[in-house]
Amino acid sequence: MIRRRTMLSSALAASAALGLAACTDDTAGGGAASSGGSDAGGGAPALEAVTISEDLATEPVVEFTAPLEVAEPDARTVVAGTGEAITEGATLIWRDLYVDAATGDTLQSWWQGAPAGGLTVSADTIGQAAYDFFLTATVGSRIALAGWQQDSSGQMRSLLQVADIDRIVSPLRAEGEEQPASGSFPAVTRAENGAPALSSPPVGDPPAATQREVLIQGSGPMTRPGDYLVMQYTGWKWSDGTQFDSSWDRGAPFGFVQGQGQVITGWDANLLDLPVGSQVLLAIPAADAYGAEPSEGNPLAGEALLFVVDILDAASTVSA
């Protein structure tokens, strides 16, 4: 998949990842998640010592005596939502905050302008324990997780995450008005599920600057810097048309915070100002992808790339 080029500039290495770190079986400190406060490590579950406000209309208030020991991962529902039940494969959007268990300080919060976040509920990607916990939740729930995350300096930190599950992303493919093709790039065909394919390899030299062509014009809200963007994509090498990656093949959309350097420049600069529901083709020179010079450590370095991207959701910051 497309890897992030840099860490987030905030204290956390990934704004939406504590839910995974807190609930997977292989996190630092070991142990399985507790969906109801079970004692997996011999001591009291961390969240038993934490009080979390239940007013869903306001930022969660998280209270405990610091430092709080997180000996085992813990997860529980604070307020049960009345919305749709979460099922296998669902991609969630949530509003969340992170609190340092050692100090009680809030590190970042959607209610204070930090990005939204989310994940796809799959045992293969988030671990069996996390998967089991999220299947107990519903849209509209406020959940809490205790676990560990690596900060931007590489240090593991004990954290609490409180998240209000806002929605399930749907549909999982672009929907809108077909746009006429320019003819400058290979024609795009789609499988029954929406997965794109190229009718032929690219021809000629790649563009000197990233070019964007809208294939389907969506009708949703416009994407903006700071959005938590959820997308499907497939990528091909310009040089020979071979496919090197696809979220469709993995069975899960990809999410990242737009405009914060988490992805290649060709994505960060060219997935803005698009209505949700759109599908776009991006022709990206090597300089806007993984660098113009080949590298033994990255087989895509020095390669111009072609992507077809479906914009599924764009969750904004509270100030947007």
UniProtKB/TrEMBL annotation:
Region (Disordered), start-end ranges: 174-208
Enzyme Commission code(s) on record: 5.2.1.8
Catalytic activity: [protein]-peptidylproline (omega=180) = [protein]-peptidylproline (omega=0)
Record's signal peptide: 1-21
GO molecular function: peptidyl-prolyl cis-trans isomerase activity
Pfam families, per the entry: FKBP_C (PF00254)
Residue stretches spanning the membrane: none
Domain of life of the native organism: Bacteria
Assigned keywords, A-Z: Isomerase, Rotamase, Signal
Domain PPIase FKBP-type: residue ranges: 226-315
InterPro entries linked: FKBP2/11, PPIase_dom_sf, PPIase_FKBP_dom, TAT_signal
Family: Belongs to the FKBP-type PPIase family.
Protein name (database record): Peptidyl-prolyl cis-trans isomerase
Species of provenance: Brachybacterium equifaecis
